[in-house]
Amino acid sequence: MANKVFSAMRPSGRLHLGNYFGALENWVRLQGQYECVFAVADVHTLTTVTGKETEIIKPNTREMVLDWLAAGLDPGKSLLFAQSQVPEVLVLHSLLSMVTPLGWLLRVPTFKERVRQMNETEENVSYGLVGYPVLQTADIILLKADRVPVGIDQVPHIELSREIVRRFNNLYGETFPEPRALLTETPSITGIDGVAKMSKSLDNHLELAATAEETSKRVMTMVTDPQRQRRSDPGRPEVCNVYSMHKLFNPGKIGYVHQECTTAGIGCVDCKKLLAEGINRYLSDFRTRRAEMAANPGFVDDVLADGARRARALARETIDEVYQRIGLGTLHG
Ligand code: TRP
Ligand code: SF4
Fold first, then answer.
1. 107, 149, 261, 310: which could form a disulfide with 182 (CB 3.0–4.6 Å)?
2. In order of start, what are the domains of the chain with their CATH numbers?
3. Is-contact 224 194, C-beta < 8 A?
4. Does residue 209 have its Cβ closer than 6 Å to ligand 1?
């Protein structure tokens, strides 16, 4: 059987350059190489977002999917849907939870980390949070995908998915292919603070869908070589995040920037202006496409509804097979 790719993102709203280079660009590329499925992990969001806060999930989904589509995810090539609209995944999650030892879940580093971040004890966090990787496993195998493009931080989850699948297959017969992480070299993008990885929660990000003016304004606040205090001081490009970004957005000018920085030929203000221009040029077509799609109110909903319909047809086959293997009979007729 040919390999099938699955990945998902929690609906975080508009994506930033870190999300683009860390994941989305790779997803778009994979579309040409594999059969691909990409989902909005909105049910996963409920592990941390509850009550009134859930009103943000739908608008965030729409903003994120606009970014996906504008970046080149093509509903004609890939299956795109929101997890909550394919409820078969919840059935599979429940059945997988029966063959997953609690100890495996409590040992996952991301779980311990989350509990700590939430300032909680393991006794107080929700059952759903402990089961996060089980739901993730259900996502991956529901349509029998086995290649999972993720960042290095998600690797423990994928390993756990493989363990769960192995256990299910041992107990009930070969049903699912064992998933494997698809690790691709992606440039890691540092935020405008010049220290931490770009992230929305740290507010050090550059949004893909920002206007050119907004982008320029934020780029002008970027932290540069701290030792370059005066315009006449030569700078050190290798410690400056503006310089690292020039490599991505102005590759043709990188020699010039290096030369002019180290000889104090160019000031940081002009250097940043050049970078903002490069980023805005890079994102210009993306932004045009996105604005066109955003102007069409039902567009994202239609894409996701169509994706969910197609996904559910395939998901039902899997659930039927799983029911039969477990001895629960058939679900659909
Ligand atoms: N847990 C992933 C994240 O936080 C999102 C996700 C949900 C996912 N289901 C998945 C990733 C299945 C890969 C495969 O980034
Ligand atoms: Fe960084 Fe450019 Fe200033 Fe050099 S000139 S320190 S590369 S912003």
1. 149
2. 4-189+297-326 (3.40.50.620), 212-292 (1.10.240.10)
3. yes
4. no
